[in-house]
Design brief:
With about 270 residues, the protein is of the alpha/beta class. The chain has ten helices and seven strands. It is about 55% helix and about 15% strand. Helix 1 packs antiparallel against helix 2, helix 1 packs across helix 4 and helix 4 crosses helix 6.
Amino acid sequence: MSDASATPPRQAAAFFDVDNTVIRGASAYHLARALYQRKFFGTADLVRFAFIQARYLLFGESKEQIDAVRERALSLIAGRSVAEVTAVGEEVYDTVLELRIFPGTKKLLDAHIAAGDQVWLVTATPAEIGRLIARRLGATGCLGTIAEHKDGYYTGRLLGDLMHGAVKADAVRELAERENLDLEASYAYGDSLNDLPMMTAVGHPCPINPDGRLRRHAREVGWPIREFRGRPVRVARRSVKTASWAGAAWAAGLVVRAIRRQVRKRLELR
């Protein structure tokens, strides 16, 4: 006779970072562009985001960069409705992000789903946007940064910490307790050394498109490495650098055009 109170077997899971692991580049930058087009903020802020995106593609992420994006992004959405920002996110996914998904990562994610694993995105991206991406990919859910909102409007503050670094590992462990997940049988995928705490929390860590520091660590400890950028690393870096400076030039062009408009207006008033 079976024991009805017996603990059910624990399930394996796969945890994926988003930026440069699932999606090429920083997803928040593309959201910022769309919000700029809808007059959420001005040209100077967009230029700041564009240069952060260029630095991210060239050198990977840093704590200082993440903190700067967080503080400015929170101030920009303060007073805006959750529904409004989520609707913009849906459009950004359909028009931009879906086209930037690495096919190799998508195939790997689909394989985990087919194997019956839970699949979670773990990202510093706002939770609303992360859940949207997870839903579109067929993943179980998302552990993301939670921006506080009251009565459906953002307050400009965070609930808890930014989902980054050691916070990712803590969130994964808490989720494992809640969902009865077997972390030793689970997988974690990331591109940056900042994903290392999350990756060491599971039995099967695997860098995807790793930056130089994570690549060196993976080789030292014998982790497998997946490269889904479609070209050898040296060539990929060259193409990324070109794209990054193109983005910076585009942003600088916006500034020049804005200045010209201001000059014309002043001349017309004379």
